[in-house]
Write a structure and sequence with these properties.
It is built from ten helices and 19 strands. By secondary structure, it is an alpha+beta fold. It folds into two domains: 127 residues, 3-Layer(aba) Sandwich (Creatine Amidinohydrolase, Chain A, domain 1), CATH 3.40.350.10; 215 residues, Creatinase/methionine aminopeptidase superfamily (Creatine Amidinohydrolase, Alpha-Beta Complex). The structure holds zinc ion (2 copies).
Length: 360
Amino acid sequence: MSFPARRSALRALLPGAGVDALLVTDLVNVRYLTGFTGSNASLLVHAGGDGASRFCTDGRYRTQAAAEVPDLETVIDRSGAQALAALVATLRIERLGFESDAVTVDAHDVLAEAAGVPLHRAPGLVQRLRAVKDADEVEALRRACAVGDAALAGLLDAGGLAPGRTEREVALDLEDRMRAHGASGPAFETILAAGAHSAVPHHRPTGSELRAGDLVKIDFGALVDGYHSDMTRTLVLGRAAAWQRELYALVAEAQAAGRAALVPGTAVAHVDAAARGVVERAGRGEEFVHGLGHGVGLQIHEAPSLAAAGTGAVEAGMVVTVEPGVYLPGRGGVRIEDTLVVRDGGPELLTHTTRELLEV
Ligand code: ZN
Ligand code: ZN
C-alpha cells in the first residue's frame, strides 16, 4: 500500500511550511493519505511519524475505518477535526498547520479554540503531492480511461449516435455503458452537444434531437476506484462539410502541439501557448475560450492547471488533459481531449479512441 509512503512524503513538506503537524480536513486529501472512502474524516499528520499521527471519523464508520485504515490510531468522535485539534498538548505539537484553502473562517475559529493555540496556514501541501501520481494511481486512471474508450466504442458499434435520438438519450446510453464496463458512475455530468450546441463549451444535454450533418461533441469520463477519466471527441453525423473538416484539422493540430509540449520541466503556461499558438496563427485565438487542460485524479479538476495564467512546470508522473477547442457561436465547435501521463521520454496516452475525424 502506498498510503504510508504518501504520509511520509507529506511529512517531508512540513518543515518548509513551518509546522510540526498538519490537520488535514479536506476529505479528498484524507482519502489520498489513508485510503478511507467514507464521507466524514480528518487526519492529523505528525512530523514525528505515523505513531504520533491520528485518524478521526464518527461512529457510523467504525468498521469501515478499521478495514480501510488499519495502520493509524483511530479516534472515533463526532466533532471530527475538533477532537484532533484538542490533542495538541498530548502529542506535543508546537506549530499546528491547517488547510487554509479548505477550512472556512468559522471552522478555523472552532479548531483554534479546541487547540488552545493559534493555527498556522499551510495550504496546498497535499494537492502538491497529488499532482504527481504514483504507480497505483496511474493504474487506476488507466482503468478509468479504458472504461471510457470501451463505452464510446460500444455506443458507436451499436449505432447509438444517430439522427432522431436526443442528446439526453445518447448521454444516458453512454453513462450506462460506462457502468456496464465497471465504472461506479460518470466522472462528471456528460456533455453531449449536437449542432449549434457544440459551440457551447460546457453544454448540458437537452431533449433536442441529433440531425444529419451535425457536429456532435462528447465530453465524458468514468469514475473507477475513486479516479476520474476525461476525454472529448467530436464527430460528424454523416459526411463532414468543408468548414467542419477545416475546424477539426485546426483543433487536431493544436492538440498535437499541446501533447508534444508535455516535456518534464516545461512551464505549464508554455504548454498552453504551444497549442494556443496554432489556433492564434489561424486567426481563431478569440474562439479558444478556455485553458488547455488540467490535472486529473481523485478529482476531475486538480493541479496542475495548464493555462496561460498557470504557474509551475509539468513534471514526470503528472496526469493531465490536453483539450483545445474552437467554438463558432451559432454554428458549431470542436474540442479534442485526451488524458496523458507526463513521462521523460514523451507523454503516455491513457485515452486511446482515435483522434481522426469520425463520420458516423
Ligand atoms: Zn473533459
Ligand atoms: Zn477536461
